């Protein structure tokens, strides 16, 4: 009795919702038609072409029910290099051309501000540099850039090598299949810690790692303060990370250490009036950099493992280059030098081609701070804009036969703004040199001393949230001897 009553209430509710949606749909169509007319009369710039889908829900469902790359590519085919859509509750203009990306990120960057959901901002920390523009952003960015400059990271080579070798040894001694992506994440986290804190005491490192993995689980879960949910646990873990960082900071202050790592750069900063950064600003940026460094680097490394595994000729070619370096280090008895890492041209091209093929950052988001006109189209104030890196990287006009893995295409520099794996302009990736250095060092040890077999080599992709091979690429490793 009770069940059927509640079912019929549910049905009634559902039919009302359908009716409401239909009503909204028709009504909003009328509204947009009317507005289009008004714009035509005044001959103001018009909105870009494209469909906005259902109101509120917009095209979010399409985006999530199919491969996002197919979603963007089919839009581009239909509407061209600029089109509008509606995702996650926001009206938005997508730009799939090099000029469009440059307009938003470089030449007119001041008309667009970074934009992230508030819930994510709270998890990373509102003072982290990616959420800011203007003076504060420039200030923090300088500190981050200095701590990741070639002069600083070249000193990290021996420590990175130690991390690489101990990771590879641990995968072999596991004696079974490992989830390559998860393992690459551990490696990338450790190198992130190195660049932020230098050689950090082991128990701080473990505490940060445990608590950070809780933060991470909350990042892609539904944001609610209800106790026991992933999101609220993540906020608590974040608080503990802040406490750990404060403890590390006060220890350093006691010992008056002047380190060259990011923490050192931030602790030494004084403005014109001698004011320092607050612990909160420092902690938010430390967490921000660890966040920016980990999954990105790990995703690309996992793709490289797959690309090399799937193409034995490619593997042989990269091995030939790396064996020569291996001999020069007296079979690994000497650490790699900075000069040697700068002189691995083929390996470097393989890395660039992997970055292009995988395009793990498929697009980015900004928000128009005023009405902006681009190529005769209006981008209204408050709308999101999305430069679509992946579409540009996979456009045959700029990268012929885009679906072939072909490192030789990088023997010539790509045309301006057609290759942006690290973004462009004031918010472009300050960690790009460190990311490439990690990859060079890992590839060096991997191909000279180890072999590996991908166990479940399907061609699927999972979004976590960056694209990675399905199931994190289950792989088994052996030492060559
Ligand atoms: C292969 C690895 C990586 C890729 C593909 C990558 C890609 C990117 C991209 C595309 C952006 C710009 C986002 C935008 O404009 O909205 C960015 C920003 C950033 N990346 Fe990376 N990144 C990688 C590794 C790293 C590493 C290792 C670090 C630090 C150790 C790092 C730190 C940052 C920071 C701090 C920002 C924000 C810069 C700002 O807002 O001014 N990234 N990254
Ligand atoms: C998180 O950090 C705290 C210190 O603030 C530490 O006691 C704890 O063991 C860490 N790990 C977890 C899972 O809470």
Structure notes:
Pathway: Plant hormone degradation; abscisic acid degradation. It is found in: Membrane. One of its GO terms (cellular component) is membrane. It holds the Pfam family p450. The chain has 481 residues and is α+β, with helices and mostly antiparallel strands. The protein has a domain at 25-132 and 311-479: Cytochrome P450 (Cytochrome p450). It has helices spanning 2-42, 60-65, 68-79, 98-107, 118-124, 134-147, 150-153, 157-174, 180-197, 202-219, 230-255, 262-268, 279-310, 312-328, 338-342, 345-358, 389-393, 432-449, and strands at 82-87, 90-95, 112-114, 178-179, 366-368, 372-374, 377-379, 384-387, 450-454, 461-463, 467-469, 474-479. The strands form four sheets. It has a five-stranded mixed beta sheet. Strands 4-12-9 form a three-stranded antiparallel beta sheet. Bound molecules: protoporphyrin IX containing FE (HEM) and 2-acetamido-2-deoxy-beta-D-glucopyranose.
